[in-house]
Design brief:
By secondary structure, the protein is an alpha+beta fold. The chain has 14 helices and five strands. Strand 4, helix 8 and strand 5 form a beta-alpha-beta unit. Helix 11 packs across helix 14 and helix 12 packs across helix 13. The chain is elongated and about 110 Å long.
Length: 352
């Protein structure tokens, strides 16, 4: 640890100012106030505590207290001016340091989640923020009805809850593009589970997605993108689970890896539904509800607010138009895959 100047270093000229002001009754000049502010900034940058510095000023004032014709009231006014200017400079330096730290943190987070920096250099910078990128990490992303910034109440509430329970433990809680983000070691699934619980509550029912643990600095980017993709899939498919895990949704990226093949399947299997009265959407919604509830007609009818008879009529109509019977296991796989593809590709709202 390097030696720092003693607090007396920041009292330079203080006794002279006090003596002159008490003798003449004048107020401190602009230059004298500026010098006190500058000393306050220097003290803050050197890491001294404000309480000790104010105490040093008061002790020096007692030592240099005017006697004889000097006015105690004027001396006290001078002490007040000096301490006020000194603390103003001290606080200004602290605010600047906080802003610089916040800027460095934001730059690091952007580089970490986008992988734009040299990975070796990124790993070095990560240690400053408590992350060891040589280990595997997983990322959780939460979104709510609104967008959240770094200093907003919701991110601070979630961060306090996570850090309060687990300590720092190489955990980073932040925001990105209006969402809450948590980066944690890959083997500490309990951290991300707790983050998900807290974020869901703090965002008043927002959805959380958790990427898979991935090794290295590049793994953070990959896990983050998996979480974002899971949120996008949930929106497209209408999934209502509050917490989504990318590992449970791997089948969907596989289905859309060949987009043209999926589009061909949707058009070949479900295209005839567009000729129905009212278009394809009501019949497509019927298939979606039917498959989502395990092909139980009564439950599907309840979800669609239909009678079982009306639901059965729709299923028969689908069979007539497509040639595939939703109740027949031999036809069900192709139909259900096509329905999932339609939801992923936003058909029929989007032309294929």
């Amino acid at each position: 640890m390097t030696d720092r100047p003693a607090p007396e270093r920041y009292l330079d000229g203080y006794d002279r100012i006090l003596a002159e002001v008490s003798a003449t009754g004048r107020r401190l000049t602009r230059e004298e106030l500026a010098s006190r502010r500058a000393l306050g900034e220097q003290a803050a940058n050197a890491g001294h505590g404000l309480r000790a510095l104010v105490s040093a000023h008061l002790t020096a004032a007692r030592t240099a207290w005017p006697s004889g014709s000097g006015s105690a009231d004027e001396a006290l006014a001078a002490v007040q001016q000096v301490v006020d200017a000194f603390t103003e400079g001290f606080e200004r330096a602290q605010v600047l340091a906080v802003r610089q730290e916040e800027a460095a943190r934001r730059e690091f987070i952007d580089d970490l989640l986008y992988g734009r920096s040299d990975l070796g250099r990124l790993a070095e910078r990560a240690e400053r923020f408590g992350l060891r990128l040589s280990h595997a990490h997983a990322v959780a992303v939460a979104e709510g009805a609104g967008a959240y910034g770094e200093g907003d109440a919701v991110p601070r509430q979630v961060e306090r809850a996570v850090i309060g329970r687990f300590g720092d433990r190489s955990v980073l809680v932040t925001t990105k593009d209006g969402r809450l983000v948590c980066v944690a070691p890959g083997h500490q699934a309990d951290v991300l589970a707790h983050f998900a619980k807290q974020a869901h509550a703090a965002t008043e029912g927002g959805r959380v997605a958790i990427g898979r643990p991935q090794p290295g600095a590049g793994g953070v980017v990959q896990s983050y993108e998996e979480a974002l993709n899971a949120l996008e899939l949930a929106a497209r498919l209408g999934l209502d689970e509050p917490v989504l895990r990318a590992a449970d949704l791997l089948v969907y990226p596989v289905l859309t890896r060949d987009r043209q093949a999926m589009a061909d399947l949707v058009l070949d299997v479900l295209g005839p539904l567009t000729t129905a009265r009212g278009g394809a959407v009501p019949l497509l919604d019927t298939l979606t509800a039917y498959f989502d509830c395990g092909c139980v007609a009564t439950e599907a009818a309840r979800r669609l607010s239909l009678s079982v008879r009306a639901l059965t009529y729709r299923l028969d109509r689908i069979h007539q138009l497509t040639g595939a019977d939703p109740a027949d296991p031999a036809h069900r796989y192709a139909l259900q895959t096509a329905v999932i593809g339609a939801r992923l590709l936003d058909w029929p709202a989007t032309a294929l």
